[in-house]
Write a structure and sequence with these properties.
The protein is mainly alpha-helical. It has helices spanning about 1-30, 50-55, 60-90, 95-105, 110-120, 130-135, 145-175, 180-185, 190-220, 225-230, 240-250, 255-285; strands at about 35, 45. Helix content is about 75%, strand content about 0%.
């Protein structure tokens, strides 16, 4: 009995931590999502009003559309680039160790610092990119004042930073694959493309799905990168869903509405997870 008490005593700090920073905020925010609460006013129960308002809020539609577009583009490009780099290193090239360090370095960069650095890189009047284009006789690109180019700039930065994430996971997956199927295929005279298509890709599919799932969830939550670079502008063209949640709660002080938006986001992530998990389970079986 004394040993059991000691065991539970050691677990108590962890339980308190999880309850105070995870369970309680989750439950309280659910309660708050059914309230009309502006900072400085007494909360009042409004039922599903916040959720109904979110369905007709054009800024919710805009931010969700941009977030989904951002996720689809960045994850797809990062997967292709990460897989290409992983295959290149896996085949063995000169300077492999140096390239491993070089390819993974962007992952350890602070998103805020990276965004402020790229403010100077994408500066329209005297930034290095537009200066190079000017020397080559090209046009001045409105990187941060045009909705299309602002979105492109944000995606380019995310791709540069997070391609190493895909690279690390896929390289680990490649190095864990069995060698026997490759040796048999080479004996049978299979080409490199046939080996990749019929052996590497099927064996690597569970790793690819896992990497895509993890990165998709991370991309759906993007906030700091966009906030520091464009503040959601020009206008609201690059405003992400999490940024609108932040603005609703911390700038407009609509705390109940922000809580309902957070739960809508939670439902979206859960749906994505439920759609991909059966596929992942079938692959592993």
């Amino acid at each position: 009995m004394r040993e059991d008490r000691v065991k539970f005593l050691f677990l108590l700090p962890c339980v308190i931590w999880i309850f105070s920073l995870t369970i309680f905020p989750l439950v309280y925010s659910l309660y708050l999502s059914f309230q009309s609460w502006h900072l400085g006013k007494i909360p009042s129960f409004t039922g599903l009003t916040n959720y109904i308002t979110a369905l007709t809020d054009y800024r919710v539609h805009n931010s969700l559309e941009f977030t989904l577009k951002f996720t689809a583009v960045t994850v797809s490009v990062e997967l292709l680039l990460g897989l290409g780099l992983a295959l290149l290193i896996h085949e063995g090239i000169r300077g492999e160790r140096f390239l491993r360090v070089l390819f993974t370095a962007p992952l350890f960069t602070s998103p805020i610092a990276l965004s402020y650095l790229n403010l100077t890189i994408f500066y329209e009047e005297g930034g290095p990119i537009n200066n190079i284009l000017k020397l080559l006789g090209g046009p001045k690109i409105p990187w941060l004042s045009d909705p299309f180019f602002a979105s492109l700039a944000v995606m380019m930065i995310d791709i540069w930073q997070w391609t190493p994430f895909m690279f690390i996971i896929l390289l680990a997956g490649l190095e864990s694959l069995p060698r026997e199927p490759y040796e048999a295929a080479k004996v049978d005279g299979a080409s490199s493309f046939q080996i990749f298509k019929h052996i590497t890709l099927p064996l690597l599919t569970p790793v690819i799905i896992t990497a895509v799932l993890l990165k998709a969830i991370e991309s759906l939550k993007v906030f700091d990168l966009v906030y520091a670079l464009t503040m959601g502008g020009p206008g609201i063209s690059t405003e992400t869903y999490t940024m609108y949640i932040y603005k609703s709660g911390m700038r407009f002080f609509k705390l109940g509405y922000a809580a309902s938006l957070s739960y809508i986001f939670l439902f979206i992530v859960m749906i994505l997870f439920m759609l991909l998990m059966p596929r992942l389970r079938r692959v592993y079986e």
